[in-house]
Amino acid sequence: MEIKAIGCEPLQLKMMHVKDGHTLKVYEDHGGYKSLKKAMNMSSDDIINEVKASALRGRGGAGFPTGMKWSFVPRDSPKPKYIVCNADESEPGTFKDRYLLERDPHALIEGMLIGAFALGVETCYIYYRGEYNYLIDIMDKAIEEARAANLVGRNILGTDFSCEIYTHTGAGAYICGEETALLSSLEGFRGHPRMKPPFPAIEGVYACPTVVNNVETLTSVPQIIEMGGIAWRDLGTEKSGGTKLWSVSGHVKKPGVYELPMGYSDMEKFIMEDCGGMLRDDKKLKAVIPGGSSVYIMNADQIIGKNVTLDYEGLVEGGSMVGSGGFIVMDETVDVVDSTKNLTEFYRHESCGWCTPCREGTDWLVKIFNRVADGGGRPEDAQLLLDICDNIEGKSFCPLGDAAAWPIQSAVKRFPEDFKKHLFQNTGI
Amino acid sequence: MASVATDYTNQVVYTDEVADFSPEIVEEMRAHLVKYPADRKRSALIPLLFVVQRERGYIDNEGVNFLAKFLDLEVTDVWETATFYSMFNMRPVGKYHIQVCKTLSCRILGEPEITGHICDRLGIKPGETTEDGLFTVTRVECLGSCGTAPMMQIGFDYHEDLTIEKVDRLLDTLKAGK
């Protein structure tokens, strides 16, 4: 598996191939914690303004502007405030945070500390998906190292600033990547999402002001403080700032984690050259899901020769979304009805059961896919699937419902031949 | 033993007995509480359920009773949380819990063959445990290791870039008790 930057100097991936890069000493030898020291001589407003200027958007999938999220936290709250790092990386096709957590834990600690200093936060939690258990030990050791160096704990670097960082584990629930469900889980409850408003910035964990940020979002912060927001933004485009990690899996020769400047051109070159092209030379590209399983699936005609740029605007124009940046590449051996069934099973399993459209809807979708897979497809099934999706999309309590509907809606539209093959097999047409 | 009933997992679910843990384990549990505000002990529930599962093999009634006492919760609070999360086993599993990732990237790169091979070798179906209690096989959803698909997790350990030969070597090693 490849881990490398293309079209830019490695920023997110700076420590990936450095021996013992996860240790404090080596991290500091590579300029680590300089940004924290710089930030601690800046005002809160200046730090937040740099993050705003960087055009950094949440890297977990929703893409909400990070600086704006930070600015929603009330300054004068009498309650304690929290930063919670969302390390519940569970979106199918996404595995970038895992390598950041494994090989560059101090970058996350530094990013959290800068945020904590700017927002007046004294306690941070890192919420790991339960399956990433081995990464928690790495982070706990890193936190202890940082504590011994007076970078975490009371009176950091001899100042009034105090901040604790704790690791916390989930136990196998995709829904806990949704920020309010994550907070319910952090409080020891079932991972049910909560009504918004109030947004976490006002009432988050323990009903206190809380910022929830993805791992890659927070590890970008030290770079932004070091370079300045505008300079960091200009690595990418005006609206999609900086560099971003893309996880690539499926039918390519070189799957891996790639760091690209936002606005990278283009998607076809990325798959066919940078990722080594198709796994089997005699098989053609059929489909790509570019942003984790929850985004629209694209067919080859939308990619080949279409100059789709890899940033928030470019992928929307190209017919999909950045999401979490998880590319799943499929060649012509894949039956899109089967791949969509597979993802629908995922959403049914991961639906938390809180709201009816998602709980019942995903179950019916799987039942229909199972019948089709067993040879019982009917011509009207495509419309039936779309009708059910319509009853889920926008009508569920949280975005998991939309995430279950979008892959199906786009698959039916963009791969009609695959559906026809299954749905008309009993009609003789 | 108080009244006895069975739930949908066919586990005996009602006893008032409370599990007994060694002072070291209780100390380990206490160490988790430090992370959360004193009046928010429930936050430690998921980490502590993992401790119970490790020590008792699965989430059992006595272990749940212990946690309810330990965290000042109702027994139903503990069950409510425990039954939501797929990593908590509500009944015993084999010494080696083989969890094969079944989601898309793994599926298109050979998960069905890997699962089929493991099940054939062990003589069980997904969801079952071998008679000697050594292996349980489960097909699970995405484990965040798509770049090294197909993959599986045994206990907490990741095994990636799987091939039939690699799986065979692994099963041989585990069977030999190494």
Description:
The complex is a heterodimer of chains A (429) and B (178). Chain A is of the alpha/beta class and 429 residues long. Chain A has 17 helices and 12 strands. A 6-stranded mixed sheet of chain A has the order 1-7-6-12-9-10, covered by helices on one side. In chain A, β3, α7 and β4 (164-169) form a beta-alpha-beta unit. The longest helix of chain A is centred in the C-terminal third of the chain and has 21 residues, at 356-376. Chain A is globular and about 80 Å long. Chain A starts with a strand and ends in a 6-residue tail after the last helix. Chain B folds into 2 domains: 3-84, no CATH class; 96-175, Glutaredoxin (3-Layer(aba) Sandwich), CATH 3.40.30.10. Helix content of chain B is 39%, strand content 10%. Chain B has 7 helices and 4 strands, in the order ααααβααβββα. Chain B has helices at 23-33, 45-56, 61-70, 75-82, 104-108, 111-122, 164-175; strands spanning 96-101, 135-140, 152-154, 157-159. Chain B has a 4-stranded mixed sheet, with helices on one face. In chain B, α3 crosses α4 (75-82) and α6 runs parallel beside α7. The longest helix of chain B is centred in the first third of the chain and has 12 residues, at 45-56. Chain B is elongated. The chains are: A alpha/beta (429), B alpha+beta (178). At the A-B interface, β4, β6, β12 and α13 of A face α2 and α5 of B.
Silhouette of chain A: globular
Q: SSE order of chain A in H/E notation?
A: EHHHHEHHEHEHEHHEEEHEEEHEHHHHH
Structural class of chain B: alpha+beta
Using the alpha-carbon principal axes, give the shape of chain B.
Answer: elongated
How many beta strands in the DSSP annotation of chain B? 4
Provide a count of the helices of chain B: 7
The multimeric state of the shown protein is heterodimer
Low-pLDDT residue intervals, each spanning 5 or more residues of chain A: none
Helix content of chain B: 25-40%
Percent range for helical residues of chain A? 40-55%
Query: What is the straight-line distance between the termini of chain B?
Result: 39 Å
